[in-house]
């Protein structure tokens, strides 16, 4: 069992889940094909994570990349970037950016 963890990726969790649901339970090679062909912005950070997990498996366990399977993949909400938007009459409204 090998894992790779991606933290502080500035992206909506819903948009990343849309891609994660497609690769969960698939083989390593099939996952690479899917991530390279999907048109979403979430694919690039996830592709880097899959490469990292494969490198961890080959280095730590000595397993072949053709035998790997994505058994578990999950996305959780992270921290939000909080900014203020100036409004009329000296007021300001908060902006929360994922």
Give a description of the structure.
This is 50S ribosomal protein L22, chloroplastic. Belongs to the universal ribosomal protein uL22 family. One of its GO terms (cellular component) is chloroplast. The protein has 98 residues and is α+β, with helices and mostly antiparallel strands. Helix content is 41%, strand content 12%. It has a single domain, classed as Ribosomal protein L22/L17 (Ribosomal Protein L22, Chain A). It is built from 3 helices and 2 strands. It has a two-stranded antiparallel sheet with strand order 1-2. Strand 1 and strand 2 form a beta hairpin. Helix 2 runs antiparallel to helix 3. The two termini are 30 Å apart.
Order of strands across the biggest sheet? 1-2
The SS-based structural class is alpha+beta
**What is the terminal-to-terminal distance?**
30 Å
The general outline is elongated
CATH first level: Alpha Beta
User: What series of H and E elements makes up the topology?
Assistant: HHHEE
**What does the average pLDDT come to?**
93
Tell me the CATH topology. Ribosomal Protein L22, Chain A
Query: Compute the gyration radius: what is it?
Result: 18 Å
How many individual domains? 1
Low-confidence stretches: none
CATH architectural designation: Alpha-Beta Complex
Portion of residues in beta strands equals: 5-15%
Helix residue percentage: 40-55%
Give me the count of strands: 2
Biggest sheet details: 2 strands, antiparallel
CATH superfamily: Ribosomal protein L22/L17
Family: Belongs to the universal ribosomal protein uL22 family.
Main location: plastid
Function: The globular domain of the protein is located near the polypeptide exit tunnel on the outside of the subunit, while an extended beta-hairpin is found that lines the wall of the exit tunnel in the center of the 70S ribosome.
Subcellular location: Plastid, Chloroplast
């Amino acid at each position: 069992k090998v894992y790779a963890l991606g933290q502080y990726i500035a992206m909506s969790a819903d948009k990343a889940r849309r891609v994660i649901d497609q690769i969960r339970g698939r083989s390593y090679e099939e996952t690479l094909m899917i991530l390279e062909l999907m048109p979403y912005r979430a694919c690039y950070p996830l592709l880097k994570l899959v490469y990292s997990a494969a490198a961890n498996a080959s280095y730590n366990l000595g397993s072949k990349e053709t035998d790997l399977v994505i058994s578990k993949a999950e996305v959780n909400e992270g921290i939000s970037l909080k900014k203020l938007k100036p409004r009329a009459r000296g007021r300001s409204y908060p902006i929360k950016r994922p």
